[in-house]
Amino acid sequence: MQIRFWGTRGSLPVAPQAETIADKVADALVAAEGRSFADKSAARAFVDTDLAFAVGQTYGGATSCVEIDVGEGAFVICDMGSGVRELGLDTIRRFSDGSRPKEWHFFMSHLHWDHIMGFPFFVPAFMDGAKIVIHAGHSDAEKALRRQQEEISFPVPFDWLKADIEFRTLETGREYEIGAVSVALVEQDHSHDSYGYRFRDAQGKVAVYSTDAEYKVDRSETLSAMTSFIKGADLVVCDTMYSLADSVSMKEDWGHSSNIVAVDLCHEAGAKRLALFHHEPTYSDADIQRMHEETIRYEELTREDAPLEVVCAYDGLCVDV
Amino acid sequence: MSDEGLEWRSEDRAGVIVVAPIGRVDESTADDFKEHLVAAASNGVKTLVIDLSGIAYMSSRGLRGLTLAQRAGSTAGTTIVLAQPNETMREILAISRYDMLFRVADTVEDALEE
Questions:
Q1: pTM (two decimals)
Q2: Are the beta carbons of A217 and B100 separated by less than 8 Å?
Q3: Collapsing DSSP states into helix, strand and coil, what is residue B58?
Q4: Alpha carbon of A242: minimum distance to chain B alpha carbons (Å)
């Protein structure tokens, strides 16, 4: 199973300004200390191995969209933030050799704008013969998607889409078989509720997608429920938008979690790997890299059993599970 | 996980209450940690100093107790000051940004100063 991150930013898409790129180039040149490169591949090797990620690359700015790929059957996708545009184009390339069906299954964490805004730009929805199934814990998913394509918001009405689009409302406490994966969901604290998903492939590997989830300081039962849900997972994608201090003070009830709680959850559940996700849109690449480094350190300081690997999701990251 | 509870020491330093938990803040002791601090912060003293020197480290379980104590203190008019965390605790307070929610003093004596 491969987990591909097409959009990792929280709340609002962001894009670097010209000055940000100029700063990265200047920092890279300073780091190169006058050395020369025989060709582009040598320069690229320098970028990949010698430069800090925040200098040589970027975490990206597309909103939530994560693919659960078992390499066969229908495409399985969590959320349709602005990252779903690139995913749509890439999946068209991948099914063009005939090895995969023209079928996409979405699993919606919830229906807030940043998690559905990419759908009007999802090219397969405009294709004859395409099948799209939208799974959600919410019964009003269709209403949300139709509403964002009403005339006041978008020029192309939902009914003009050519794909066969079906909505399915899922229930917690059950496991569903969707092609080559089985899926379960859990309710999370967030405005209008959100749902986390647990995907298990035929080899028994487990990946959990849990975003836009808040763990209130006086509601330990939600932490216990999530600990059970992610128990033994091979990868847990977690909402780590805020610092713990922000999540219990100014940003309490804004519906998000922290890197600290994510590590604690994974430690208690015996998860093997944590992916930091739903990055704060005001954070620069340097801010996100610092948060990643601090999270690795916190994991070391509080570890009691097996190490938890902490990766930081970025647009374009692919994790083998 | 420890089966042993936390040990608590408490003293009145000229009207400032200094409490010192000693032991591990884990699944078995987190409720005691929270309840003890909330009670201490609800007594209406002007300043409550929590001496952290006897705590090796804490996860969000313990930090949650600090938050609830601060909320109780806010209602009761009590300011909480954290004192003499070890290097690990100091790092955890920084990573969680709790050092921006609480004043953190190097020593109990420093914490007693306004």
A1: 0.96
A2: no
A3: coil
A4: 10
